[in-house]
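Why should sequence recovery work at all? Because a backbone constrains its sequence more than one might expect. Tight turns favour small or flexible residues, buried strands favour hydrophobic ones, and helices have their own preferences. The token representation captures these environments compactly. In the example below, the structure is given first.
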């Protein structure tokens, strides 16, 4: 079983686009894969690595985007 490291956010429009760009930047920097899934409560950003997930969560905090560690 593959461990996934996901963060679920409630963001829309430009803010969601900005988060996608940041997720891509983080993944490129760590040379790991990432993906997005729809969730009942928002959008789930998933990374192959826990450190990448923590970096993304930190960006969410900096952008004042509420998130759930899922």
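From this structural description, the recovered sequence reads:
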């Amino acid at each position: 079983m593959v461990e996934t490291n996901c963060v679920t956010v409630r963001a829309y429009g430009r803010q969601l686009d900005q988060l996608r760009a940041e997720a891509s930047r983080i993944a490129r920097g760590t040379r790991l894969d990432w993906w997005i899934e729809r969730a009942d409560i928002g959008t789930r950003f998933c990374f192959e690595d826990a450190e990448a997930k923590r970096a993304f969560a930190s960006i969410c905090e900096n952008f004042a985007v509420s998130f759930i560690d899922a």
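A few observations help interpret the result. Strands lie at 5-9, 34-39, 42-47, 67-69.
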